Amino acid sequence: MKQLNIGIIGIGRFGRLHLQVLQQLPGCKIVAIADTDEELLKQVKKENSIELLYTDAFDLIKNPAIDIVDIVSSEDTHGMFAIEAIKHGKHVFIEKPIATTYKEAVEIEQLAAEKNVQVMVGNISRFSTPYASIKKVIENDKLGEIGMIRAKRNFSKNWFDHFGKRVHPVYESGIHDLDLILWYVDSPCVEVYATERNVSGYTYPDLFSTVLTFENRIVASLDSAWLYPKGGPQNLVETLELDGTIDADIEVYGMKGTANFKLSHSGYSIWTEEEVLHPELTLWTTEQGKIGGAIHAELSHFIEIVRMNRHSNIAPIRDSVEALRIADAIVQSAAEKRIISL
Ligand SMILES: NC(=O)c1ccc[n+]([C@@H]2O[C@H](COP(=O)([O-])OP(=O)(O)OC[C@H]3O[C@@H](n4cnc5c(N)ncnc54)[C@H](O)[C@@H]3O)[C@@H](O)[C@H]2O)c1
Q1: pLDDT at position 239, please?
Q2: What is the mean pLDDT of residues 268-284?
Q3: What does pLDDT average to over the chain?
């Protein structure tokens, strides 16, 4: 098996999780890491034997020894790094979102086709058993014709100190559900209405709510608020180095049945004098000392498509581009207080 040399851009919380998972995969070697934070780079160097460390990610991208660039940096850097990496003939994994503008997303898709490289976006939910099971149930026509989808994704308030200055929540929390809705609906979005509210006074709103209409007449609603209290049950424990709660629901209504999944409580609880834990059991579980769950399935799938040089049938880049088109329309609709037709 040919060794695949990987360079990771962004070694924050999620970059460190990617590093751990990729180190587990056979035939994969992390040879380089780039981050603007020199302290973080020093820390990673101490804990891992990574050969090349860069403060300028473009230097990592230029290195001809690197086969795969894994982009896990801040959201607004994804587009420029992906475009440059594809131009250098690299296979690219981009953490969600693909970019923060539709224009960049389209360029990424076009360049990937031109350069014949594999590009996949980290739409992790598609690799999570319950969400994938809902897709199967829809495909097997168990629910009949779908009429409506309702989704919500709320995050802890204390995370917003970090993200409220950095990215609109539609590209951070909402993008997960936009991707799921598109996957389940399987039809272009034709109309978007959204509204938002800024509670904390940061650059971006703490909450938004949107209604989407699709060409096949399915109506979907999605809301996301970053206002979950500190005392809420902790469901991200162990691997992600992040304390807090993801409270996400999705409900698919069909003419013959419904399917729904609640991410917030797996049914597993630990109560102590100090805290209530509801450890999440689908996304990045620790199994026999290794990281499993959806993140492992997703990155393994990406390595497999790179080795086989074929596009992903689970998370095609087209859907990520379409999700960005809708995300941009949500921001526009909320700003202009009107319905956006696509
Ligand atoms: N799939 C999921 O469920 C999931 C969960 C968490 C985060 N994420 C995604 O992972 C990415 C990183 O999020 P995070 O929570 O690790 O954030 P983070 O702030 O912890 O890490 C981001 C890192 O990127 C670095 N960075 C910023 N600009 C850079 C640049 N120009 N060049 C090189 N490095 C740069 C920062 O110094 C930081 O170390 C985001 O895209 C986020 O949406 C996905």
Answers
A1: 64
A2: 89
A3: 95
161 shares a domain with 20: no
- Cα distances (Å, whole numbers) of residue 303 to 92, 102, 283, 291, 318: 10, 26, 18, 16, 19
- Give yes or no for a contact between 71 and 78, defined as CB atoms under 8 angstroms apart: yes
Average pLDDT (208-230) is: 96
Considering the domain boundaries, does residue 318 fall inside one?
A: no
Domain boundary among 74, 91, 117: 117
Task: For the chain, give the percent of residues with pLDDT over 70.
Answer: 99
How many domains does the structure of the chain reveal?
2
**Cα–Cα distance, 99 to 107 (Å, whole number):** 10
| In-domain check, residue 281 | yes
Give the residue, out of 8, 13, 14, with the most ligand 1 atoms within 8 A of its beta carbon, to mutate for a pocket test.
Answer: 14
pLDDT at 238 over 70: no
Determine the structural domain holding residue 327 and report its residue range. 126-291+323-341
pLDDT band at 240 (very low <50, low <70, confident <90, very high): low
Q: Report residues whose beta carbon is within 6 angstroms of any ligand 1 atom.
A: 9-15, 34-37, 40, 57, 72-75, 77, 95-96, 122, 124, 172
* Structural domain contains residue 247: yes
